């Protein structure tokens, strides 16, 4: 008997099977973003028979009636204007990586000497920011410390003081500000909870000693809602454009964030118009 669950059930598509689900998701993505899907693409990508590809397409149409119609002359399925996705939430970055760039391109990919000169697709341009990463060893030990409630001793480079020194930390959580990872930890040197940029941890000692902070991290536990609206100096047309850009409701965008991360949100929203004037303001 075959070990392949698809073979065991012939050419019948079972969407509960992981491989079958991936093929159904691909069908939906092709139909939504490319507007067309055919058996050849499905069979070639997943290494399945044409009969199985036909079964997958038929199963998807049963799950999402009216999503596609068959073009007999072109021998392909074409998406309708009324199509709605039932298996995935469409994401533009995934569509670019899969169908447009010709390679798995991501803004998380840092710029380096090898990628700096690559042109990629003429239809897509991504600003590749320099990576700010810690060593794999630092990341691993920090992760294990959080997972197991361990105290660690780290050598940390401070930008404010311009010095690096050793200190004991009690890691509690990880936070990402959109550009880099931060470690949220109790610092014995400063006797308070602070954020530490992972890439600034030069060395970290292995520790198996469990330790609890002397008090609860209230700023991490507490959630706040930051309200944002277009800057009052904008013209009516500019204001409406900003409201549309940020999908504001009633001229206000509400963002829920941990209090400890509120400062990062404010930094990220410090956007300006072409002339340098502010586009947004926070409602205090």
CATH class category label of the largest domain? Mainly Beta
DSSP strand count: 11
Helical stretch count?
Answer: 9
What is the alpha-carbon Rg in Å? 25 Å
Number of domains: 3
How would you state the average pLDDT, rounded?
A: 82
Shape assignment: extended
| Low-pLDDT sequence parts | 1-10, 103-118
The separation of the N and C termini measures 67 Å
Could you name the CATH topology of the largest domain?
SH3 type barrels
**Adjacency order of strands in the biggest sheet:** 7-6-5-4-8
Q: Biggest sheet, in brief?
A: 5 strands, antiparallel
Order of helices and strands: HHEHHEEHHEEEEEHEHEHE
Strand content: 15-25%
Question: What can you see in these coordinates?
Answer:
Helix 2 crosses helix 4. This protein folds into three domains: 75 residues, Orthogonal Bundle (Arc Repressor Mutant, subunit A); 81 residues, Roll (SH3 type barrels); 62 residues, Alpha-Beta Plaits (2-Layer Sandwich), CATH 3.30.70. The chain is an alpha+beta fold. Helices cover 30% and strands 23% of the residues. The chain has nine helices and eleven strands. The N terminus is likely disordered. It is extended and about 75 Å long.
Quick structural overview:
The protein is an alpha+beta fold. The chain has 9 helices and 11 strands.
Layout of helices and strands, plus pairs?
Blueprint: H1 5-8, H2 18-34, E1 36-37, H3 39-46, H4 50-63, E2 68-71, E3 76-79, H5 92-100, H6 136-148, E4 152-157, E5 164-176, E6 181-187, E7 192-197, E8 201-204, H7 218-221, E9 223-230, H8 236-245, E10 253-258, H9 262-268, E11 280-283
Antiparallel strand pairs: 1-3, 2-3, 4-5, 4-8, 5-6, 6-7, 9-10, 9-11
Helix pairs in contact: 2-4, 3-4
